[in-house]
């Protein structure tokens, strides 16, 4: 093998994304709430950005006295791009200390601005949720009302703190004890477990599913004896719908087993889950779909909740001021450049979102007018070709975005659906196949449920050629049991 040292020229082709392009893609991908946070963060870090006032009454007196000068100074500012060094935000603090008089020249905020900021802060405080009560909080509150010995209370608290989010004690009592625990301590720990299991919700503190269900029944409940036997010995048989085996082992009739099974379904296998954080984030649509006077669907980007940004007039003037130092001007240029990039990226985001969403709506009119079951097969590449952008741009544009339509609010991704072609040559979405599959199963003879092979034949009769493995996959994904589990033994 020959090795040598020297200079070598080599031509390669590779794609390098400019920082401005990267920022535009990041802004495009943000949903409206995340964009609001991004704007707030940028405004905190970049003093060149300020919110465009919407009402003339909010403008301060100095700007009302010179409207012509203000209009001229607020024209788009073009920053020289010769300086592209790494931002040094600490320099602003240093300059503030070195030139305090310079940075005290900034105009005072108007009363309207201060009132708006105060209202926003109050709204933010009002919308802050208090910490929800946890399962441990709920149990400890009940425990505090019991008159028990200190040691028993201490062990009960230890067990409560060891419960998982569903209310189960997944750690053994032995693991909670010291290695040299004697019989008296073990008995104390067991008594503490019984205390915890006596608290609400019923079933909490169980060590497995059987114990959890048994803790939720008492002799006053209907079919108590049947429930106890089923829980103790036949949970797996119930899962697999093996009712004849249960009948043979217990002597209960099929009808009585089914009645007890129905009562069993009322029990909660995860009693602690009701205290889990079930917070559902509010959905704020990024786009609004309206109908114009001619009956056409028109998409508009929702920008009422997005602050309208502009370049600070104060820093424009500071850049041309003879009192500004070279370092100050260099800092202002960099920050102005970054501010203008952000403003342009937000404008581009709104335009791209509107164009992509309009193309989607034009393609999915049946979906809008008649509902999701009338969706047409659509791929992102088709929208990308129509709009004239890369498919990754469409992917970023629809990611986590919602559109408000006359039929409701939908995620943009829901308008994309894969599909197949039926025997008539028509495109059919997988959602339509799933709907048909559900209809076939709902109308089957429960005494002789259809196997997956039978379901394939039924779909083929409708002109839908679907593989058996696909039917099995969809059935499981839809939460539909197997034919054996769907069988109703009372209809023999």
UniProtKB/TrEMBL annotation:
Residues 126-315 form the RNA polymerase sigma factor 54 core-binding domain. Residues 60-73 have a biased composition (Basic and acidic residues). GO terms for molecular function: DNA binding; DNA-binding transcription activator activity; nucleotidyltransferase activity; sigma factor activity. It holds the Pfam family Sigma54_AID. InterPro entries: RNA_pol_sigma_54, RNA_pol_sigma_54_core-bd, RNA_pol_sigma_54_DNA-bd, RpoN_core-bd_sf. One of its GO terms (cellular component) is DNA-directed RNA polymerase complex. Keywords: DNA-binding, DNA-directed RNA polymerase, Nucleotidyltransferase, Sigma factor, Transcription, Transcription regulation, Transferase. Residues 44-85 are annotated as: Disordered. It comes from the Bacteria. GO terms for biological process: DNA-templated transcription initiation. Residues 330-487 form the RNA polymerase sigma factor 54 DNA-binding domain. Belongs to the sigma-54 factor family. This is RNA polymerase sigma-54 factor. It comes from Bremerella cremea.
């Amino acid at each position: 093998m020959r090795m040598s040292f020297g200079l070598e020229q080599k031509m390669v082709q590779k794609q390098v994304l400019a920082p401005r392009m990267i920022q535009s893609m990041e802004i495009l991908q943000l949903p409206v709430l995340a964009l609001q946070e991004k704007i707030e963060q940028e405004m905190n870090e970049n003093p060149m950005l300020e919110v465009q006032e919407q009402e003339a009454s909010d403008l301060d007196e100095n700007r009302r006295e010179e409207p012509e000068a203000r209009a001229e100074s607020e024209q788009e500012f073009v920053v020289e791009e010769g300086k592209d060094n790494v931002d040094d935000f600490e320099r602003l603090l240093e300059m503030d200390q070195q030139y305090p008089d310079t940075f005290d020249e900034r105009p005072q905020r108007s009363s309207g601005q201060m009132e708006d900021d105060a209202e926003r802060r109050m709204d933010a405080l009002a919308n802050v949720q208090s910490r929800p009560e946890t399962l441990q909080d709920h149990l400890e509150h009940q425990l505090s009302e019991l008159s028990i010995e200190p040691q028993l209370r201490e062990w009960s608290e230890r067990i409560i703190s060891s419960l998982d989010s569903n209310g189960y004690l997944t750690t053994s009592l032995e693991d909670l004890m010291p290695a040299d625990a004697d019989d008296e301590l073990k008995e104390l720990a067991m008594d503490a477990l019984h205390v915890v299991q006596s608290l609400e919700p019923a079933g909490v503190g169980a060590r497995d599913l059987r114990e959890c269900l048994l803790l939720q029944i008492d002799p006053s409940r209907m079919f108590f004896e049947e429930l106890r036997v089923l829980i103790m010995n036949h949970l797996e048989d119930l899962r697999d719908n093996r009712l004849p085996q249960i009948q043979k082992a217990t002597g209960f009739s099929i009808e009585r087993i089914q009645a007890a099974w129905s009562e069993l379904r009322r029990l909660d296998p995860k009693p602690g889950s009701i205290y889990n954080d079930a917070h559902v984030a509010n959905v704020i649509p990024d786009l609004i779909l309206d109908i114009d006077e001619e009956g056409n669907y028109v998409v508009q980007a929702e920008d009422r909740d997005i602050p309208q940004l502009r370049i600070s007039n104060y820093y424009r003037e500071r850049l041309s001021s003879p009192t500004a130092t070279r370092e100050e001007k260099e800092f202002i240029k960099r920050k102005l450049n970054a501010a203008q990039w952000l403003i342009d990226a937000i404008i581009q985001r709104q335009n791209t979102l509107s164009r992509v969403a309009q193309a989607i709506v034009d393609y999915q009119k049946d979906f809008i007018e008649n509902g999701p079951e009338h969706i047409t097969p659509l791929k992102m590449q088709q929208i990308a070709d129509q709009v004239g952008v890369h498919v990754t741009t469409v992917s970023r544009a629809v990611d986590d975005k919602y559109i408000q339509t006359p039929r409701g609010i939908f995620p943009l991704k829901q308008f994309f659906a894969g599909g197949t072609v039926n025997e008539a040559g028509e495109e059919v979405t997988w959602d339509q196949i799933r709907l048909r599959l559900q209809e076939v199963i709902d109308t089957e003879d429960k005494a002789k449920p259809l196997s997956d092979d039978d379901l394939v034949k039924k779909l083929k009769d409708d002109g839908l050629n679907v593989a058996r493995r696909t039917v099995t996959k969809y059935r499981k994904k839809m939460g539909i049991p197997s034919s054996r589990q769907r069988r109703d033994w009372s209809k023999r």
